[in-house]
Amino acid sequence: MPVTLPHLSRRAFGRLALASSAAAVGGMWRTAPARAAAPTGEPIKVGILHSLSGTMAISETTLKDVMLMLIAEQNRKGGLLGRPLEAVVVDPASNWPLFAEKARQLLSVDKASAVFGCWTSVSRKSVLPVFEELNGILFYPVQYEGQECSRNIFYTGAAPNQQAIPAVDYLLSEDGGGAKRFALVGTDYVYPRTTNQILANYLKAKGIAEADIMVNYTPFGQSDWQTIVSQIKAFGSAGKKTAVVSTINGDANVPFYKELGNQGISATDIPVMAFSVGEEELAGMDTAPLVGQLAAWNYFESIDTPANTAFIKQWHEFTKNPKRTTNDPMEAHYIGFNMWVQAVTKAGTTDHDKVIDAMIGIRQPNLTGGVAEMLPDHHLTKPVYIGEIQDDGQFSVVWKTPALVPGQAWSPWVPETKDLIGDWRKPIACGNYNTVTKACLGHRHA
Amino acid sequence: MRKARTTCLLAALWLGAMLLPGHSARADAFADLASPQFGVVTAAISTLATSDDPQAGAALQALGERSLFAAPDGSVYIRHGENYVEARTGQPQVSVPEGLKPIRLNNRIRTALAGVQAGRDLLAPQPATRLRAADALYARHDPAMLPVVEHALAVEKDAAVRTRLAEVRAATILGQPPAPDALASRLEAVRALGAVGGAQARGILAGVAGSDAEAPAVRREAQAAVSRIDWHLRAWGVAQNAFYGLSYGSVLLLAATGLAITFGVMGVINMAHGEMMMIGAYVTWMVQQAIRASVPALEPVAILVAIPVAFVVCGALGILIERGLIRFLYGRPLETLLATWGLSLILQQAVRSIFGPTNIAVQTPGWLSGSVAVGGMDITLNRLAILVFAGLVLGGLMLVLRRTPLGLQMRAVTQNRRMAALMGIRTPRVDALAFGLGAGLAGLAGVAVSQIDNVSPNLGQSYIIDSFMVVVFGGVGNLWGTLAAALALGMGGKVLEPTIGAVSAKIAILVLVILYIQRHPRGMFPVRGRGVES
User: Fold this and answer.
1) CB A218 to CB B357 under 8 A?
2) By the 8 A CB rule, do A122 and A189 touch?
3) In chain A, which residue's Cα lies nearest the Cα of B200?
4) B105 → chain A, closest CA residue
5) Cα–Cα distance between A29 and A109 in angstroms, integer?
6) Which of B271, B294, B382, B450 could bridge B281 with an S-S bond, Cβ 3.0-4.6 Å?
C-alpha cells in the first residue's frame, strides 16, 4: 500500500492502514467526538513492559506514554475487530530478572495478545525464553546489536546495518570529514561490544589499519570522563582526521559531552557519532557546546513531513506538554503497533500463531515519508538519517540513505554469522538458517 | 586604504593557491550556497571568500550564524531580525518568496567557514584576534593556506603573533607533500615544530617520520623530535593524571562528608544519603530557574546562591527525617537500613512524579566552563572549582566540629551518650541537628555534582555505594580518614584507568578495598578509645 498523497493527516494514515476494516471515521480526532460505534465485547489486552522506575525509567516511561496514546486513539477509531483494546501496564523497574517475571505475568495471567516493551538488550534477552515458551508476541522498539532472530519477537528498531554501518559510511565520506582514525567508545555490555566488533571488522574491510582503531569501554553510569576524553584527545592528535563512534548508554552521555566541551573538543575537531543519544537525552543538556555532534537514527523529531507534524501535535495534546520531545523508539512503536493492528485485522483473530504469520509483508507508512515493511526476518525496512545537534536541542538532518535499508538480523561482518539469515516464512521457517549448508541451526540465538 | 590593498593582495594570493572549480561564475556562488550537496557549498564558500564582491562577507557570516535563507527558486536571503535582505545584491526586500528555509550547515561547512574566518582575521586590527586566527590555522595546517600565512607573516608587527605565525608556517609547510627541492625548508620546519612541542606538533611530525616519500634526513630529524616531545608529553601526562585523581577524589570526598557525619559519627546507616544529594541538585536547578525568571542579570552567580539554599533545604529535610523516622530506630541498624532504603525509593519516585523522569538541564555558568592550560596540562574549570569547594566544605566542617558548641556537643554525645545527657546536653536535639548537618552537606555535594553529572531522579544511586566505601575505608568516625580514603580511591582509580581500562580499574579498586578491610576492619584511620568499644 504505497502512500504518496501529500497532505494526509496522521489520522488518515491510520485509516489507510485500516482500509480493510472499512470503519467510517472522518475528520481530525480533536474536533470529532467518538463517531465510530463504541467498541463492545471482550477487550483485547495489550501488554506494556517498560520500566517506570529505576535507571531506565528516563527512557522507557515515554514509550509507555506513547503506547497509551496509540491504544486510546485506536479505541476512538472503533477498537480492533469490533472489540476495545485494553492496555495492561506493568513496571519491571529496570530489573532484568523482573522483566522475565512480568513478561510471564502478562502472557499467562493477563493473556496479552501482544506485548510492547523492553529497552536494553539484556532485558530483551531475559524475556526472550518466556516469549518463546508461552508463544507470545513482543514488539521491541529500540536499535540494537542484531545477531538475534526469534519467531516471537518483532524488531521494530534498527539492526546494525540500519544505523551503525551507514553512520560510519558517513564519517568516512568527504561530507562527514573523511575520518581515518576511529575511537569506538561504549558502555560495557552486549550492545556496544557486538556493535563495535561489527564496526571494527567493517572498518578494517574499508582499509582502516588496526592501529587506527581505539576501543574503550566504561561501566554503566560512568560520570568521570576526564581520563577517557584526554585519551581520545591524544588519539586524535596523530595527524589524521579522527572521529568517535559512541555507544555510550543513557545517563552517562551527559557528563561525557560536558567533559568534551570543557576540554575544548568541538565537533569540527573530533566529531562524535552517537547511537544512543536522541532528543530525549538532549533535553537535559545545554547543547550550545555540542553543535555539530552527530547521531544516527531512523527518525528525527525535526523531519518535516505531514505525518510527523500530526504525530508530534497529537503527542503534545496527549501529554498536555508542548515541550515533550519525540524520538526514534517512539516511531518504532508507532510503526509496530499499527502493523500489529493491520495483522490482526488481516488474520481476523488475535491468535498468536496466525498473527505472527500475518505480520510478514505488512506495510505501514512511517513518520518520515517512507513505508516500513515487515521482512521475513522480523526486521523492518528503514531510512537512515544522520543528524547534527543544533543549539535548540534538535537535530538537523545532514545526510540520509538514498533508499530504505532492509534490516539484517545477522551481520555479514561477523565471521560466525556471515552466512546466516532469518526467514520465518515456510518452508524455511527458521531464525538462523545457514545459506551455505542449507541447514537451520535451530533454537539458538547468539 | 592600506587594509583594502592588502585584502586584494590576499585575495589574489588565495586565488592562486586554491585551484577549485567554479571560480568563474561568481554570480552562481550565492545560489550554490543553498545547494543540497555540501561539496558544492564548500566550493561556493571558497569562491566567495576570494571574490571582491562587497556582499560576499555578509553572506558568509550569515551562513555561519544560520541567518541565511534559501527560497525554492534558488535566491538567497539574509535575515536581520524580521527583515530580509537579498544576499546577492544587498537590497532590502519588502516581500520574500514563500517557503524560505534556513540553509543547513554541517561540520564540513563549519570547518570551511572557520578557515575563511581565520584567513580574514589574520589581518584584523587587534593582535588578540590575529593570535586566535593563527591558533586556528595552526590546528588546521592546511597547505592551501601557505601563501596567506606567509603574506601575514611578512606584514605582522606584533612579536607574539609573529612567533605563532612562524609556527603556523612550519606546520603548513609540513602539511604539503614533500618535494625534492624543499629539503632545506622542510628540515627547518621540522626543527621549528620540534621546538614548539605538544600533541599537535607530535601528530604532524609523526606523519613526516612515517612517510616514505620524505627525505631520510628529514625523517631522522622528525623521529628525534617525536621522541623528545613524547618524553615531554609523558611527564605532563603524569601531572595531568594526578589532577584527574585529585579531582575524582574531591567528588568522592564531597559525596562522603555528609555520610561521614550521619554514618561515621552518629552510626546511622542512611541509605537515603544519595537522595539528599539528588535533592540538592534539584534545588540548584530551581534556584537557577527562579533567578532567571526574576533577575536574569544574576544568572551567572545563581550557582553560588544555590549553595546556602541547598544546604538549608536539605538540612531541614534531614532534621524532619530524623525526627519523623530515624529517632525511633536508634540501636537497630537493620531496621534503619531498610527504613532509609525505603525512604530513598519514596524520594526518588516523588521527584520523578513532580519533575518527570528525564534529566533536567542545570546550567553551567560561563565562568565554570572550559579549561585553562598549565604547561602541558588542561585544568578544567568546573573540576577545579569542585576541588576547591570540597576543600572549603571539609575545612568548614572541621571548624564546626572543633570550634562550635554544637560540634562539642556532637562529639560528646558520640563518645558517651549517657554521660553527655547527664551533663545537661539535650541529646535528641543534638541528634537531629547532627543528622540535619549531614543531610545539608549532602545537599552541598548535590550542588557540586550538578555541574559535572546529569541531574535525574537516579543521581543519588550512583554515589551511595562510593560514599559508603569511602567512609568505611577511611575509618568510621574519622574525618581525616574520609579525606585520605577519598583521595586514595580517586588517585588509585585514575592511576589504574589508563592502563587497564575503566571497567577493570573499578573492579581492581573494589578488590583492593575488600582485601584491605579484611586486614584492617576499622579502616585506614580507626577511632580508638573507650567510647568505641561499647
Assistant:
1) no
2) yes
3) A237
4) A398
5) 34
6) B450
